[in-house]
Amino acid sequence: QVQLVESGGGLVQPGGSLRLSCAASGNIFNINAMGWHRQAPGKERELVAVITRGGSQNYADSVKGRFTISRDNAQNTMYLQMDSLKPEDTAVYYCHANARYGPSMDYWGKGTLVIVSS
Predict the structure, then answer these.
(1) For residues 33 and 58, what is the distance between their CA atoms, to the nearest angstrom?
(2) Which residue has the higher pLDDT, 118 or 73?
(3) Residue 96's closest CA among 54, 41, 40, 45?
(4) How does strand 10-12 pair with strand 112-116?
(5) pLDDT for the residue numbered 17
(6) Alpha helices in the chain (DSSP H)
(7) Cα(58)–Cα(46) distance, rounded to whole angstroms?
(8) In whole angstroms, what is the distance from residue 32 CA to residue 15 CA?
(9) Cβ neighbour number for residue 54 with a 10 Å cutoff
(10) pLDDT one-digit tens code per residue, 1-28
(11) C-alpha span between 109 and 15 (Å, rounded)
(12) How far is CA 23 from CA 48, 84, 116, in A?
């Protein structure tokens, strides 16, 4: 089993920056890709960024060039550096991890709220 705990959310003004963290614990050895998803009010949850164990990254077009995903495998921690934040970035951000213990398993954190507002 894998437990994911997000942190770093909060209130920030447009144009500001925020860094989210996701700490993984438990049986983390078999974690493959990790990523950040977000769900804005009235919207479906969407993929923001993903990163593989090897460091390959992909971003949603809406955040490309502004957000940077990174992963510290030794510390079992994933980060999302969010720069040039916009009001439309307001959402609950969820940490996600895919692991394989035979079959593929997906794990989710409880989310951290990011509000971008003046």
Answers:
(1) 11
(2) 118
(3) 45
(4) parallel
(5) 98
(6) none
(7) 13
(8) 32
(9) 9
(10) 899 999 999 999 999 999 999 999 998 8
(11) 26
(12) 18, 24, 23
- pLDDT per residue over 47-85, tens digit each? 999 999 888 999 999 999 999 999 987 778 999 999 999
* 54: Cα within 13 Å, side-chain hemisphere: 1
Q: Are 93 and 9 in contact (CB under 8 A)?
A: yes
Write out the two tokens for 104.
């593929």
Q: Is pLDDT of 101 > 90? A: no
Q: For the chain, give me the number of helices (H) and strands (E)?
A: 0, 11
Tokens in use for 62? 């809406």
DSSP state string for 62-89: TTTTTEEEEEETTTTEEEEEE-S--GGG
Q: Does the pLDDT of residue 98 top 80, yes or no?
A: yes
What pLDDT is recorded for position 53?
84
Q: What is the Cα gyration radius of the chain? A: 14
67, two tokens: 């957000």
Is 2 in contact with 107 (CB distance < 8 Å)?
Answer: yes
